[in-house]
Amino acid sequence: MKDFIVIKGLDFYLDSKAILKNINLTIDSRQFISIRGANGCGKTTLSKLIMGIYPYRKGSIKIEDREVSEMSLSEIGRKIGYLFQNPEKQIFTSTVLEELSFIYKYREDIDKSRKEKEIDEILDTFDIRNLKNKSTFFLSQGEKQRVALASVLLNKPKYLILDEPTTGLDYKRKKMLSEILDKYKNKIGVLLISHDYNFVKKHSQKIISLEGGCIVYE
Amino acid sequence: MNNTIDPRTKLFLVLCISTIGLISRDVLILFSITIVGIIISKIFGGNFFVLIKKIKKLLYVFFFIIIIQSIFTRQGNPVIVIGGFEIVTDLGLNRALGYMFRVLIIIISGVIISTSSERNTIQGIVQLGLPYEFAFMTAVGIKFLPLLIEEFKDTYMAIQLRGINIMKLPIWERFKITSYIFIPVVASALNKAKKLSISVESRAFRAYDRRTSITSLKLKYKDYLIILISLTTAFALIYLKWI
Question: A22: domain range?
Fold first, then answer.
């Protein structure tokens, strides 16, 4: 397996408060890793730094040997799929079908002839066929999350970062998410950020604990 | 200086600035008001340029409207002519600049008002004799503005994270994609409004007809001076220019 994400000596400050201190981490392309830790320990910040959402000054983050600070958000987005803690932020069209078709409309490097087939498959995988023509305004939290994740996966990322994907999900929906992750397990790697220990334990090959901005357990 | 100026004084000032901004068609006057407004907002502790930096992406929409306005105004003398076609006229340019300065004046007004605390702004409006509900909604609007700006930025980022390089898209598609940003922001604003109304109702908002208040604002000499200067300047400008 190849090192996909390599983080070396990463420090991150927000309003002169240290959020992350000397983070060193190597993630393989097919690895399922989870990050645990108390609220405010820097889990989401770390994921946003990897995604290039936050700029960093000290240390290095490389995705496939390229420094994140030198990559555009769209370049990173093509390699890594990111599910926000609040999926509402990443649903921007008025219907579910439009949302799933979005990348076929605007990405020049995607095979548009496969659109129907791929959308059809993802509707079944995520059990959202019944929502196909529904307005995104009226989706429940669980439905929004599935639509957002389905849209991200249509991008065919090499890696996936999921920020608190089980928040607000009932047992049935959590089980469904678990089954989806199982389906993709050997196809793409996942970095899971979660408080849900049982969920983390079930899926992860490696668990990392963050405390006060430092990796305390790996 | 910020904490010592009464919010009512700031409201008077904003009223004068925006009134002239609204009725003036002279680009030079609008430009002067914009500059004066930026200086005043800085003196009051606001930072106009930080806000502009935050809404950088929204500025594309403004520029698009400015370009459209200058191109579609056919009257006036040609300024840019390509292949015999008058692309931009002096009147079109004048209207576009006027629009730009008016938008900036609105933003500056927001910056000036937001330099007072939310509680003081509500109190100021109530002491001006306006209903508490109106004051409350104004303060809520000011409070939610930065949140909405954050949401604009997040959605713009989420679109790019789908692998779409917005800057490489043709200009028309770039504007079309910008329109997608409004959907989650409007949805979120409606959601927030709904949650807020439930929340205030559940805390017995308007349970009694008359509200009492522990704080009371008092106008000082410098408040009277600022009100006097701004009203005199506004009336002088209106009199000299339009009457």
Answer: 3-217
